[in-house]
Amino acid sequence: MKKAVSILLACCMAAALAGCGATAAPGTTASSPEAASTADAAGTQTYTVGICQLVQHAALDAATQGFQDALTEKLGDRVTFDLQNAQGDTATCATVMSGFVSSKVDLIMANATAPLQAAAAATDTIPVLGTSVTDYATALDIDDWTGTTGKNISGTSDLTPLDEQAKMIQELLPNAKQVAILYCSAEANSVYQAKTIEGYLDAAGIAYKEYSAADSNEIQAVTSSAIADCDAVYIPTDNTMAASTEIVNNICTPAGIPVIAGEEGICKGCGVATLSISYYDLGYKTGEMAYEVLVNGADPATMAVAYAPTTTREYIASRAEALGITIPESYVAIEEN
Q1: Are 314 and 168 within 8 A, CB to CB?
Q2: How far apart are CA 178 and CA 201, in angstroms?
Q3: CA angle 222, 225, 230 (to 5 degrees)
Q4: What are phi and psi of 250, to 5 degrees?
Q5: What's the CA gap between 242 and 183, in Å, rounded?
Q6: Whose CA is closest to 242, among 169, 306, 158, 119?
Q7: What is the DSSP string of 66-110?
Q8: Whose C-alpha in 72, 149, 242, 243 is 20 to 30 A from the C-alpha of 63?
């Protein structure tokens, strides 16, 4: 009898010791806030971050890289990334987000508006940080915007001053009779920018007309229609257009039609000038926010959406010269793609 009791006690002690030695598995959260705090204090907590990027192009690539660099600098090999490219497809964004939720990633980074919307639909518990999103109120259908979402979501915005972009059009193209506003109608934030800049163009006395493509398959026809009616083109920050600048360039350049772009990547592909931000810096800021959420317990619901700290006026010298456009000295020359 004594022997049986001894064996039973030994088993209980072994189970207790095994329980004390348990740690959270990579890609999962520790079993309790106290355990997570202890693991981070000891520098042992690991994290898996799911990244969904809408499509591959220079601006979004730079934002993703900045995000990964920021988190890697702070966490080293304690963070792993599951990077998925949705290839410009909204349905794929939803599939990717469902996968992230099923695998219980610690945080989701949504690179562009469609991935952000898919993440919002997929989870209200996993922290979500967006980047390369122009207007969070529009993307998330929030009427009483205060700077925070009140949800499990925050991030960074790539909105550049649209009033300054309108002034740039007026400054560089004073003789333009009508400006085509060219964008993808499937991107909510592109629609927002188009409507917003129209007010500034009205104030400046610049005539304009909207030309929208439902997807990349319509860009060639819509661009051709735009240059038939207008003598200049404005393209806001738009992922579909950014991935199709070669099409726009092949139509506008031979026709001698200048393009003013909402960001650097589009400008390099088909534009003359842009008032742009650094998407790498934007992604890096998002990575810093992710560290605060993962390690310090910051709540995305109360984290203010952040914006790029600076903008730069840039131009493509070869295109400006070919079109006879005089560029002010305050602009910075960049190379075309």
Answers
A1: no
A2: 10
A3: 120
A4: -65, -20
A5: 10
A6: 158
A7: HHHHHHHHHHGGGEEEEEEE-TT-HHHHHHHHHHHHHTT-SEEEE
A8: 149
At 326, is the secondary structure helix, strand, or coil? coil
- Burial of 160 per CB tally in 10 Å (0-12, 13-18, 19+): buried
Give start and end residues of each alpha helix (H) in 256-316: 264-270, 279-296
Phi-psi region of 132 (alpha: psi -120 to 50; beta: other; left: phi over 0): left
Do 185 and 213 meet the contact criterion of CB atoms below 8 Å apart? yes
Measure CA 9 to chain center.
Answer: 57
Please give the pLDDT value at position 180: 98
Going from the N-terminus, what domains does the chain have, and what CATH number goes with each? 33-158+279-304 (3.40.50.2300), 162-276+312-334 (3.40.50.2300)
For residue 331, the SS3 value is: coil
Angle at 247 between CA 92 and CA 96, to 5 degrees: 10
Which of 126, 122, 150, 124 is CA-nearest to residue 136? 150
Q: Which residues of the chain have pLDDT under 70?
A: 1-42
- pLDDT reported for residue 201: 97
Amino acid residing at 139: A
Residue with tokens 């650094």: 278
Q: Give the pLDDT confidence of 83-132 residue by residue, as tens digits.
A: 999 999 999 999 999 999 999 999 999 999 999 999 999 999 999 999 99
Q: What is the pTM of this model?
A: 0.81
DSSP SS3 for 188: helix
